[in-house]
TrEMBL record:
Keyword Iron included in the entry's annotation: yes
Domain of life the protein comes from: Bacteria
Residue ranges of the TM segments: 20-38, 50-70, 91-112, 132-153, 165-182, 194-215
Coiled coil stretches, renumbered: none
Keywords assigned by UniProt, alphabetized: 2Fe-2S, FAD, Flavoprotein, Iron, Iron-sulfur, Membrane, Metal-binding, Oxidoreductase, Transmembrane, Transmembrane helix
Domain annotation FAD-binding FR-type: ranges: 220-320
InterPro entries on file: FAD-bd_FR_type, Fe3_Rdtase_TM_dom, FNR_nucleotide-bd, MRET, OxRdtase_FAD/NAD-bd, Riboflavin_synthase-like_b-brl
This protein's name: Ferric reductase-like transmembrane domain-containing protein
Pfam families: Ferric_reduct (PF01794), NAD_binding_1 (PF00175)
SUPFAM superfamilies, A to Z: Ferredoxin reductase-like, C-terminal NADP-linked domain (SSF52343), Riboflavin synthase domain-like (SSF63380)
Subcellular location: Membrane
Cofactor(s) required for function per UniProt: FAD
């Protein structure tokens, strides 16, 4: 059968429905917000304070939307993918940052304009009011979170520290709600607008508590996971085998990841996203991690029997998202873990090609397992080694097409360092591989 006549799988309607539902929710609420601004409860002092009020209401809506994006609701995660939702969370976060700067700025300008008072002189006066002071504290915390989210800073901050700093978002939520109770006037036009506004916030907070607290607690009480074995795969790489009760009810799939905690071995706020490095069989789970941070380096010392608290499974980096029969799997470094699991997944049928990028053959973690699986599945495995220099760029468009001539007829899964993943995605776009056939896992996790 030629590549031109290979059958195309039907694109899942669940993912399309999730996108439609999310955009409909966003647009409907934006329309309601704009309508609320047309008839305020109390007139603003002047044009500047009117602009400040408009920005403030949009800031409140953006904060509520942010809660939904970080709630990790299974309905959205399994259809859209936590990584993509977290990407939207990142951009929403920067929108919030600018709204936090502009909202109080216009309010201060509006209050200082009539008496021609210097804007900075208005800050101590307004700060004496408790609701305003709480809003200022929330703004400072948002500034701290935004500063640590800048790529240049993010690369230099350990994941554990970055995640701990991002827990400040919960303090921002509390302070923001209190601030709105006393200062919000745009949504107090009548009982209907108030019911809508607080209903929106109740829904967002309820979704957050459900996805981040209740579901993880229920799942961990049900499954009672513990460490069954710890296996050194390389001097700086270790696999942890986890067992528990009724693990098949987790409905985990190859390519997904969990957020792992080891109570008693690490502090409760130390959590790391690690992919399953083997296709789940309903009886055990396996994660494989490289010693990069404090938590990952400490996995080697985990005692057998250690209690495991896992949130998940998360991610849409699975075979269910395929649109074509044949598949290309691309891994870089320790990013081989979900790729190795996908290669084991029997639902990934058709012709399979695997590209594994490492500096040296000694750096190729789980290479023996990949070779065995490739032999069993009839897949072609290419180990790509050496430094990425001008004469050795395996993921350039030309080299990718040379390795996989029918690449545009395949679904492509890529996981590895950010630079490698970006290079692959850039080449796939240059080769005109449709977006629906490109699948990437880069772990841009929210708090």
């Amino acid at each position: 059968m030629t590549t031109a006549t290979r059958p195309q799988l039907r694109l899942t309607g669940q993912a399309r429905a999730a996108y439609v539902l999310l955009w409909a929710f966003l647009l409907l609420n934006l329309v309601i917000v704009e309508l609320m601004l047309t008839r305020p409860n109390t007139p603003a002092h002047n044009t500047l304070t009117t602009i400040g009020r408009v920005l403030g209401l949009h800031l409140g809506f953006a904060l509520a939307l942010q809660l939904l994006l970080i709630a990790r609701l299974p309905f959205l995660d399994r259809r859209i993918g936590l990584d993509r939702l977290t990407g939207w969370h990142r951009w929403t976060g920067f929108a919030i940052f600018w709204l936090v700067l502009l909202h109080p700025t216009f309010v201060l300008l509006g209050y200082s304009q009539p008496g021609k008072i210097p804007i900075l002189s208005e800050i101590p006066t307004l700060a004496k009011q408790l609701p305003v002071a709480l809003g200022m504290i929330a703004a400072i915390l948002i500034g701290v979170i935004a500063a640590t989210s800048v790529r240049a800073v993010r690369k230099r901050v350990p994941y554990e520290a970055w995640h701990t700093i991002h827990l400040l978002v919960y303090a921002v939520i509390v302070l923001g709600v209190v601030h709105q109770v006393y200062e919000g006037s745009a949504f107090k036009t009548n009982n209907y607008t108030q019911a809508y506004w607080w209903g929106l916030w109740a829904f967002a907070i309820g979704a957050l508590l459900t996805g981040r607290v209740f579901l993880p607690l229920i799942r961990n009480l049900r499954h009672r996971m513990r460490v069954a074995a710890v296996v050194a795969e390389a001097p700086d790489v270790v696999s942890v085998h986890v067992t528990g009760r009724d693990l098949h009810k987790l409905h985990a799939r190859a390519g997904q990841f969990f957020l792992w905690r080891f109570p008693g071995h690490n502090r409760w706020w130390q959590v790391n996203p690690w992919s399953l490095s083997a296709a789940p069989d309903g009886h055990s789970l396996r994660l494989t991690a490289k010693a990069i941070g404090t938590t990952s380096a400490g996995l080697r010392d985990l005692p057998v029997g250690t209690r495991v608290f896992a949130e998940g499974p998360y991610g849409a980096f699975t075979a269910t998202g395929r649109t074509r029969t044949d598949t290309l799997l691309i891994a870089g470094g320790i990013g081989v873990t979900p790729i190795r699991a996908l290669l084991e997944d029997e639902s990934l049928d058709g012709d399979i090609v695997v590209l594994y990028r490492v500096r040296t053959p000694a750096d190729a973690v789980l290479l023996g397992e990949l070779r065995n699986l490739a032999r069993l599945r009839g897949a072609r495995l290419h180990l790509l080694t050496g430094r990425t220099v001008e004469g050795n760029q395996p993921f350039s468009p030309e080299n990718l097409r040379g390795l996989v001539p029918d690449i545009t007829e395949r679904d492509v899964y890529v996981c590895g360092p950010a630079a490698m993943t970006n290079a692959v995605l850039h080449s796939l776009r240059a080769l005109r591989v449709p977006a629906r056939q490109r699948h990437a896992e880069v772990f841009r996790l929210a708090a």
